[in-house]
Amino acid sequence: MSIRKAEKSQVNILLVDDHPENLMALEAVLSSAEYQVIKATSGEEALKWVLKEEFAVILLDVQMPNLDGFETARLIKRRKKSKDIPIIFITALSQASEHVQKGYSSGGIDYIFKPFEPAVLIKKVEGFIKIYQTQARIKTQSHLLQQHATELEDLNQELKSTTAALRKAEALARAIYDVSVDTILAIDSQRRIVNANSATKAIFGYQSSEIIGKEASQLIPELEQSLAADNTKLLCTIGLPKKGKPIPIEISLGKAILDDQYLIVCSIRDITERQEIEKARNEQYELLEKLVQERTLELCASNEKLQLSEQLFHKTFEFSPNLMVIQSMKDGRLVDVNESWENITGYRLEEVENLNPEMFKFIEGNAIMLFPQEELLRNVRITYETKSGMIRDGLLSTEVLKLKGERCLLWVVTDITERLHLEKEMARLDRLDLIGEMAAGIAHEIRNPMTTVRGFLQMMKARPQHNENQEYFELMMSELDRANSIITEFLTLSKNQAVELKMDDINVLLKTLFPLIQADAFNHMNDVRMELEEIPNLMLDQREIRQMILNLARNGIDAMRPGGILSLRTFCVDNEVVLEVQDQGSGIESDVLEKLGNPFFTTKENGTGLGLAVCFRIAEKHKARISIKTSSQGTTFDVHFPT
User: Fold this and answer.
1) Same domain, residue pair 588 and 526
2) Percent of the chain clearing pLDDT 70 (strictly above)
3) What is the domain extent for residue 211?
4) I want to staple 268 with a disulfide (CB 3.0 to 4.6 A). Which of 125, 183, 323, 572 is the partner?
5) Whole-structure pTM over 0.70, yes or no?
């Protein structure tokens, strides 16, 4: 059960009985504003209450299940806190002496037999409560007395400690007063000296006894003016010694009250030596300040030059067309990369905190030792890989520099990919020029006899006696025609061959050639698709552009297996007209890709190796360029015409 919190004037009474009706009867009898009645229906519950609350008296039923009244009483008496609680047994059992004796031995101090007289019960309970209250008052008074005694003892100890501390402080003050190198004067309100220490002799030349009772102005003429300023605690003035010139002194002022007498305490120090030191120090300071100013001007000039140098380096680093990387020589991390690095490699600084060892390789194929080395490199041929996987060529140089006090290595990569490509292209064009010049020189000499031979073959073919050999004549004439077409291709390679440029539409040419290309694709069981966007007219040599389209289309058809699709497209991009020929072949090997466009290079059994060479020459004559994209899914040739 729960109980309300008892008022301070109330005391607790514990009623223990396993019959609720008995508890109610007891509660009715003992109900009072001075008591708080707590009920328990078992010995176990009673023990719990005893652990939680204090009780003036316990009324305990003897006969209860599990834990009877006698055992409950014994357990209560075993606990130090509850052993003094008076227990009254209430029982309806025998009043035999042995039964009563058992109750007293269990810790009970009284018996009430049922049925009981309410008045008797009330009187007994009131008696025990008065005893409890008296004991409580005695305990409280005893506690207060003990508390007061402790406080008095503490005050006495504090007084002793304070007295000892005061004596110690007085002795210490006297020792300081006597041994101080400063003159200490005590001056009364009449500005007369009432006390002085022995240091007065050292500074002013007077014995203490000589100046006691004298006016302080005899030693310190300007003291009165200084004392007029209430806030003055430290002043520098002039002191008058017994003999000799006035001396500079420093006075620390303090105020004290001793035996109701107002005193001014002056601690006086001779500062002659200190002023000389300060004068020398000021002279040194002025000299040092002058030197610092001169050095500062030098440093400012040097710093300005350094800033200009750093700005120049920063601009050179940031806007150089070369790839530049600054790498820490301490731990190998990248400190900075320039814009050209980011644009060409595709990597930003945060993506390449540490360089990939496989990214840079010497031209022989060995990976470069990327951790900063003392040995510097100069224009070493390398290859490097971009973020997209492209392999590019470059010349690598390194230089050691200091950046914010840290030793770093500057990597400078001059990209020569385009230069090498141009060199290869120029070599290829030179070969084309040579072949073209040769073709132009000998074409006339070869074609004349070929024309004569073909004419006689036609005459002989027309004679009746050669009817049985018609297929041989056809074969010989077709081979002569094939030789003539090869000579024509040779002439196309000639750099100096004239072209007839006229405004024309590539879309119209594609539509004209589409049936021919479609028929060729059909023979190879392939298909052709054409997607033409609106494009501007261009200056074209129609005959040569037709030849280029047919060469690219037939190469694409030859590259595909049956069922492939050849795509022909035109579109505009970046001020260029693009003619695109895309096949679905197996792609071009990298070693073959490098040789494409070289005269006489072919992968076909019956090819002449002139088709793509002619295409590149035609593109050059039209100031166009051919780009190639290839993969295992096919190859795309893009011809870019400037508009």
Assistant:
1) yes
2) 81
3) 180-270
4) 183
5) no
